[in-house]
Amino acid sequence: MKKTIIIVRLCFAVIVGIIPGRVDAAQGAPFSGLFVFGDSLSDTGNFFALNGGVQPPAPYFGGRFCNGPVWIEYLAQDLGIVFAKEDNYAVGGALTGSNNFNDGFLGLEYPGLQEEISSFLATHSTGADPKALYIVWAGPNDFFSVLGAGGSPEELIANGVGNTLHALQVLWNAGARHILLPNIPDIGITPEALASGAGPSITQLCIAYNQVLATGLDSLEKSGIRVVRIDAFSVLQEMVYDPGRFEFENVSEPLLGALMAGGTPDADAYVFWDAAHPTTRAHEVLARETLKQVLDCYSPAHRMSDFPLSYVHALNGLIRAPARR
Prior knowledge:
By secondary structure, the protein is mainly alpha-helical. The protein has helices at residues 46-50, 71-79, 113-122, 140-148, 153-173, 191-196, 199-222, 232-241, 255-260, 280-298, 309-320, and strands spanning 34-38, 133-137, 178-182, 227-230. It has a 4-stranded parallel beta sheet.
């Protein structure tokens, strides 16, 4: 969501290889590819490559703001998509506008969400592939930036939601037809927010933000722009408030802190990697819950109980089927 990010120009990370236990791309995928725009929750090393491997340092994994792969990597594998490194435009610290939370660090300026999409369009002169999946997820850094500078909640919501809706419209107008948008996760239950004492207030602000975002998405849908909505807010809340469902044991302390203290904790038992970012285990949970919600969006009747092959096969049929007249 934030922390030190250094970006001079958009660069691309080295994507990890096949994640054991996921769907083989050779089986076919419901989408022709995957393009990602956002911040550190989806950044697979763009920042790390640009600053020469300085930030984030080990034990952060491969330049990710995590201890392992992040959710889009798990989701790509679950869908059987070969996720090309150059198709991830997400940059840690990105705001929903054209700025970055870390602008000025080392005297440099870094891209925000709008610039990421502009970079995509600049390298895809023929437009967006209508058969690919496009993920847009930004907003948490707007909270840190606006509130940290003394801005009002009204300013935060108006600008953040407005920027996000604009990004969706730009992608749609470029030809994208499968766009996925997670809402704002519950930042109020992160270790950072809890330590500040403002957790409950931040949670309420996240709720208000998501309500306005949902209203905006309703308006887009009425105009013909359909977006797959992912309830990331509820997924994170479920991990924290019903940890046994996902076999988590520690929902309030960062795994990184335990490691730095010389401990040998069970990484899979933690929801949070550092004060603001989830562990790779939590990212995996988000990916699986996202896949369920994607299938529900295309057709609730096709929800299957076994994961993930039946989900992917069902999506294949739904997305590739000829349009009804």
